[in-house]
Amino acid sequence: MNRKSIATFFLFAALNVAGNAAQPNLDESIADLGHRWAKVSYQTPDSEKEAAFRTLIANTQQVSQSFPDRAEPLIWQAIVLASAAKAEGGLGALGKAKEARDFLLAAEKINPNALDGSVYNSLGSLYAKVPGWPIGFGDKKKARDYFEKALAINPNGIDPNYFYADLLADQGEYAKAAEHLKRALAAPARSGREDADSGRRQEAMQLLESIKQKHGEQLASK
Questions:
Q1: Neighbours of 111 (CB within 10 A)
Q2: CA dist 104 to 151, 187, 212, Å?
Q3: How many angstroms from the chain centroid is the CA of residue 75?
Q4: Please, which contacts does 99-107 make with residues 24 or more away whose CB atoms are closer than 8 Å?
Q5: If residue 163 lies in a helix (H) or strand (E), which one and from where to where?
Q6: How far apart are CA 79 and CA 69, in angstroms?
Q7: Contact 168, 180 (CB under 8 A)
Q8: Number of helices and strands (H, E) in the chain?
Q9: Do 70 and 24 contact (CB within 8 A), yes or no?
Q10: Where is this region: Disordered (predicted)?
Q11: Residue 16: which pLDDT band, with cuts at 50, 70 and 90?
Q12: Tell me: the pLDDT tens digits for 158-212?
């Protein structure tokens, strides 16, 4: 091999190494999305959330494009879209909710167990909160079914227990809701998700306190 060939070989080798180093790592990308979501959800003023979520939606799209055959980016696209819809409110948010549902259904086909069953937890949350027919696709029974699937995969998780409790409280099942809120509060810490856990734990404590104040007699009778 002459000098020119050797130089060309090392040039292509260097470019290949640089290219591999520049490729995003899925776990790191997902962790980054999680931290960004927690910051917008729990630390950003309400007046600034819509704009912050728009930026985060673009971030999730980039990650999905980098990993087109993985369920995790699709789940995070859905989570961010659903959160943006909540921040936006009104019927104008329905389009984002429908798009979030479609991403989750696509993720389910790839890997329904990804991110500890977050596909089913997120679908349950959407069906619980979106208005029903003829306005939207909301369905409390479907929501309950999805939450039960999520809990079958991750029975001690903070998110499925909290969101299921929220649905139960909405349907007047306060004692059962309180049980799941206590499970949410006792959920093991998730490494790298401390910021999200902190915010969710605060929500669980607030809902449990509200149930105790308004429906304490029902809890005492159980």
A1: 15
A2: 17, 24, 34
A3: 7
A4: 100/126, 101/126, 101/137, 103/74, 103/75, 103/77, 103/78, 104/74, 104/75, 104/78, 106/74, 107/71, 107/72, 107/74, 107/75, 107/78
A5: helix 158-170
A6: 18
A7: yes
A8: 10, 0
A9: no
A10: 187-222
A11: very low
A12: 999 999 999 999 999 999 999 999 999 999 999 999 999 999 999 999 999 999 9
* One-letter identity of residue 139: D
Distance CA 49, CA 29 (A): 21
* Helix residue ranges, H only, the chain: 3-22, 26-43, 46-66, 71-88, 94-110, 114-129, 140-153, 158-170, 174-185, 194-220
Residue 113 scores a pLDDT above 90: yes
Half-sphere exposure of 10 (CA within 13 A, CB side): 6
- Please state, in angstroms and rounded to a whole number, the distance separating the CA atoms of residues 212 and 128: 22
Residue 186 in tokens:
């006792």
Q: Is 11 helix (H, G, I), strand (E, B) or coil?
A: helix
Structure tokens of 148?
């039960």
CB-CB neighbours of 174 under 10 Å? 21
CB atoms within 10 A of CB 49: 18
Token couple for 73 = 């980016």
CA 147 – CA 149 distance, rounded (Å): 5
Which amino acid, one-letter code, is at 178?
A
User: Which amino acid is located at 150 in the chain?
Assistant: A
Nearest-angstrom CA–CA distance, 111 and 206: 33
State the virtual CA torsion across 102, 71, 65, 80 in degrees, nearest 10.
60
Q: Fill in the amino acid letter for 71.
A: A
